[in-house]
Amino acid sequence: MNFKKLGKILGKILILQGILMLAPLIVAFAYKESIKNILAFVIPIIAMTCIGFLLQLPKPKRDTFYQKEGFALVGMVWIAMALFGALPFVISGDIPSYIDAFFEITSGFTTTGASIVTDITKLSHSTLFWRSFSHWIGGMGILVFVLIFIPESNEGSSMHLLRAESPGPQVGKIVSKMKVTTRILYLIYLGMTVLEVLVLMLDKPIAGYESEHLFFSLLTAFGSAGTGGFGFIPGSLESFHPFSQYVVAIFLILFGCNFTLYYLLLIGKVKDVFKSSEFRTYFLIICAAVALVFISLLTRIEQFPQSYTAEESFRHSLFQAVSLMTTTGFTTTDYHVWPTLATTTLLLVTFIGAMAGSTSGGIKISRIIIATKGAYINIRKLINPRYVPKVKFERKTLEEKTINDVFAFITLYLFLLLLAVLLLSLDPINGQAVTVTSDAGTYTVEHGFLSNFSAALSCLSNIGPAFEAVGPYASFAGYSAFSKIVLTFTMLLGRLEILPVLILFNPKTWKKI
Fold this sequence. Notes:
single chain; mainly alpha; two-stranded antiparallel ribbon; 4 strands; globular
């Protein structure tokens, strides 16, 4: 294990995180917040800068590192980022418990959006900004950004980091140079974020929050870009005007696309975008999910508490289907009280997720396609043992290893989901009644299996809100410290797609080569 080399990169990332933390510090000054809120960012910035500088001092014997080291580094980096990123919440007093703060910032960096905050109105502007900004930082991946600064001679090492942090079964460069690839990805990411802010600014301000129009537009764009979904006013995006809700829904669809497709658009290869089977499947699933939810609402509209027009039914159907499929978690209404067909559809799309190479979580559509084709091939081989399998994806023949890796990932995913549910079932909160207040009124639900299952699924797929006692108008605050730690690491497993976190617990990882 090349500890000195890994330490140097970890040090660079801590310094970079300190630089990024200047943004919420500026917000604290802009809103004339207390000295305590200002020190909440100053102290971690100084600590990360000093530690990062010290980690730069040792000189490594070799400049490259192997795949297992790359995976281990990614796991260490994300945990370190969360450990330091939680400090502003604790120092400011907005989230006094360190375990709660660690849960909250991990939820931010992993773009989950699950929250332990029960009263969002009590958080300072700088805290609200840091929560949502963490979505934007974690959406594309901070290590992808750092790859810009890794020397060109370390192309192999850079690819190990890219594979470990980027979602999807197959990861590669879109151009010959890794630095150019990462620059293109981040320019597209930044450009789309700025565009969403500008479009949201075209709408009129939310009543009662006229002075916060730009601030809220920024936070919304951060959450959309990272497909995170932290709320910053009561009811998430319920108070937003229909124009803004449609705008956010459209951008969620766009951020759920593979960013490589945008590069193809930029260089004029429009036909190649529409030839992508994952792209076509992505939009087909969105249309099917929206249609099922919309029909369910129209046919049962008189049976649930909210009073929707046909347009509102479509808008909420579109928004919630897209929000949960892209694992964002923004909400415009309380979908927990919707008809069974609607809620079942929403639960199913949370498993799937959006496209590989996007900022969303979940299993990913590419894996679903590959697994389906792989299962079909196995059935064909059972019928005809002489059949020679040939699985194609995106007009390329897949190696058997890739198919096996997909099956292994889905198996691990389901195993970890069930393990998390089992651990959550030990929590004393099980069986207790939880009161929920939403646009559907005030009602009571029992914290049971669906709460635990959907909470585990929400964290593993990096979604945010779940169902029942942890639904869109509830929070994760009722869970014990043990359960919050379980869910925190479940979020990390989901964002880093399992292996970079699990490899940290393998003793062989830490043996010297």
